[in-house]
Amino acid sequence: MVVVLRLNALKVKLSSKELREISQEINRHFTPIFAAKMAQPTRPALKLSPHELRAISEEISREFPPDSATQSTNLVLLAVDPGVMHAYWHIAKNNADITTKSQMTLRLYSTPKRDKSVDEEKLWQDIPLQHDQKQHKIHLPVLASNSDYSAVIGEHHIDGRFTTLAHSNRIIANSHSAASHQNRAKVTLLQTTSKNLAKNNTSGLGILSAL
Amino acid sequence: MIKKIVPMHTLHFKPSPQGFLGIILHAHLPYVRHPEYDSFFEENWLFEAITECYLPLISVLDRLQKDRIDFSLTLSLSPPLICMLRDELLQARYLNYLRKRLELAEQEIIRTRHQRGYQKLARLYRRFFRHCLNTYQNQYAGDLLTAFKKHHATGHLELITTAATHGFLPLLNVSQTAVRNQIKVGIDTFKTAFGFIPSGFWLPECAYYPGLERVLAEFSIDYFFVDTHGIMDATPAPKNGVYAPIDCGNGIAAFGRDPESSRQVWSSQEGYPGDVDYREYYSDIGFELDFDYIAPYISDEKTRTNTGIKYHCVTGKDQTKEIYDPKKARAKVYQHAQDFVNKRQQQAGTLSGIMDRTPIIIAPYDAELFGHWWFEGPYWLEAVLRLASESANEIQLTTCSDYLKQHTSHQIALPSASTWGDQGYHSYWLNDSNEWIYPLLHKAQLDMEKLVADLAGLSVTPLQERALNQAARSILLAQASDWPFIMKSGTTVDYAKKRITDHIARFNYLHDGLRKNRLNERYVSALEIMDNIFPDIDFRDYCVTDDNAFVAFNQP
Fold this sequence. Notes:
The complex is a heterodimer. Helices cover 20% and strands 26% of the residues of chain A. By secondary structure, chain A is α+β, with helices and mostly antiparallel strands. The relative contact order of chain A is 0.12. By secondary structure, chain B is an alpha/beta fold. Chain B has 20 helices and ten strands. In chain B, strands 1, 2, 3, 4, 5, 6, 7, 8, 9 and 10 form a ten-stranded mixed beta sheet that branches.
């Protein structure tokens, strides 16, 4: 508070960015470099041998295995590539009594970005699913490019009715422009297993290359 | 009077260059620490990287400083790496690893006594390991973060960081809290280690989606990087290609990777590391010598592994591997460094004539390429930094922070969704080999958020608080982008699968124990010992409402 008052008295006005830069500069130049070693994480008071740790780890892995089942029916959409989306879902037990007379269906909606506000102009397409299916790869453009997508999963009845079981999240499908797509040249890469050896490469000049 | 503090290296006059060159190294390894075993194969990933990448990089920085070279370099240190480098167990195990390497080099000097060329190399490896030991133990007392901090203090090395466990943010974005916590915990870990908030943020796998810049803005980040097409496909189209940053509309700058500099290093046909005179990574005595001889120096004395001692060079295609000649390799290093700098100068010359501002060429690489995959990489980097510092009127080394201080106005445009992975989007991290992980990751995240929300306004006991914090660690560790990457690349797939399922199981145990009020302190302690990453984590960050809701939790 004292510092603030003095600064005010001197009519020094500093933005938060300036304050941060000054703080970083001071830190750079005046932080003790060879200070005592950094604090280590607090150790639990209990000491356990490697054997005991391993036994607990194995027991937990055995007794609490991953399970994607949720209490309620859910549906998730994930963007993959400009041409591909991934959908996965879980049908809760109380929704699992779907009759064989209905067709489990993924209904995909697209909303062209420019018409985002006009809900009525949503386009949709049905993708029939197997009853035991839990995920689906969706190849785009199913409906329209440059769109927001959402989906519902449900039963499509013989009489045309559609019973919705779950709504998905809304996603924006990955997109790329035609210009950069044409310039994209795949590079044969080092034959090692380093993390990011497989890369696309586009021309970084883009429109500059045409000048 | 408040006087503006100017870094020492910027005090002397610098002519206006034709272009800037920003070299960025991203250093990251997944959290590989297994106190439940006396030794563990995957911990060698860290030990190999310290020996072959981080210590050589520190030696490069030390030599440049000693020679008063005016250079700029950016280093991104991932939070798991920061935590592992400061971990006492791993520090002790690393010293054992290094001593065993030294012992093996001594053995090799004896074994190769009648093979002059090989023995010369064995002596080289002994010198190399001795130098590593001296730098690690005597010069920096096992604390390599101090070394990086020292060079940051000179103003030549900009330090930045990335997400907490290198989570692949676009595929975690089903929950904004998941993305926010990856970023927050990453920055908090960096701040605890280095004492300041980084200006830049390395997006794991350069994976960006529109809207991510808003989360970064919450944490006062100034800039991040995207792959080339992230800028080229921006909306509106970039006026200056990838050679000037764009302002995402909220003041945060996005820099794009230069494809030319990338190709020269990564490509197997044009790339430098594939040169016939460089050391061959895949020729390692761990796989070549008699099993009984090498057994004491490989994993559990049972499974053949890399030892770091390699005697051959890449050699020509379909030819018998020749003995590695360090002198020839060093000559090539200089030649390749000169070529790289020349090409950047030519690029800058061309670009400066057609751009409305001084171009900046962004050259980001994995730090682990330099020294591990490409043995001569650190020397090449050193030569590039030396050569570029000599030709400052044509191409000038810079950091993105320094560039942004000099250039304050940028075209406003939003990058497009992109990554630097194969095909440029998400398919390397979401495909037939790894798609099963996402329902599990998303469910655990949702369960955690619900649990924390349900606890709002309630008191938690110290043990419950520990369990909640540990549950947050388990979720973050499961979210690392390394696991789906490994599953796709097909390397250590079983380990990657086990890590994901173990972390989710650990979360499930803690979640169940908290929900049913039957936590066992012994088990919670075991998990804290095994997954001791992020000591300052706070489960309250999983509250999905606004920050004010955190106060609703009653401290015990």
